[in-house]
Design goal:
The protein folds into two domains: 118 residues, RNA polymerase sigma factor, region 2, helix turn helix motif (Rna Polymerase Sigma Factor, Chain: A, Orthogonal Bundle); 79 residues, no CATH class. α4 runs antiparallel to α5. The chain is mainly alpha-helical.
């Protein structure tokens, strides 16, 4: 029963990625409705993400708009290794990071700017930006070395920050089976991406 569910889940994941790629292709082809579809679907979540970080509705809306501007410009480079939503959040991480750097340099003096850049919010964003970069590399390695079911478990844990329990329920496996899958994926990655252990630990702690 579980193998059938795993195959179905893997097919759903691939179907989602194919839908993302098709949507991106429509945008690149000039279909305005396609980008409007992305905007209306993702705006609430991206705005909520920005608002949690800046705690100012007006600033959060500006950052959200900037995220979608950057998303539109970068769609030709989208390869579909992760979901379009995850990729959009990666852009939002970068936009928020630039916002905090700008505030630290132009709203306070140089000495205070260095102190501000060390504060928890900025440090958290920087870690997540680094994580997004490393996770892109992880996707490539896992596609070459792990079955789709294990790739999905890894993505749910480190790409979308789901708990072990939530992943187990989603893929129809026990908590221990999920942990074993993650350990084996990490072992594969450690040989190819030396810095992966620290980055993945930081991501897991925020899950």
């Amino acid at each position: 029963m579980q193998p059938q569910r795993n195959r179905k889940q893997s097919q759903q994941t691939e179907s989602d990625r194919n839908r993302d790629r098709a949507l991106v292709e429509r945008v690149i082809a000039g279909e305005q409705d396609a980008f409007a579809e992305i905007y209306s679907s993702y705006f609430p979540r991206v705005y909520a993400f920005a608002l949690r970080r800046v705690r100012d509705p007006a600033e959060a809306e500006d950052l959200t708009q900037e995220t979608f501007v950057q998303l539109y410009r970068s769609l030709p480079s989208f390869e579909g290794r992760s979901s379009l939503l995850t990729w959009t959040f990666g852009i939002a991480h970068n936009v928020c990071s630039r916002y905090f750097r700008h505030c630290s340099r132009w709203m306070v003096g140089p000495k205070d700017a260095r102190e501000l850049e060390d504060r928890p919010v900025e440090a958290t964003i920087e870690r997540r930006v680094d994580a997004a970069r490393v996770l892109d590399r992880c996707d490539e390695i896992l596609e070459a070395n792990r079955r789709p079911a294990h790739q999905e478990i890894f993505h749910l844990r480190y790409g979308e920050s789901h708990s072990i329990r939530a992943i187990a329920e989603k893929v129809g496996k026990s908590n221990e089976a999920v942990k074993v899958s993650l350990r084996r994926s990490r072992a594969v990655l450690t040989n190819n991406v030396p810095e992966i252990v620290i980055v993945l630990d930081n991501v897991a702690q925020s899950a």
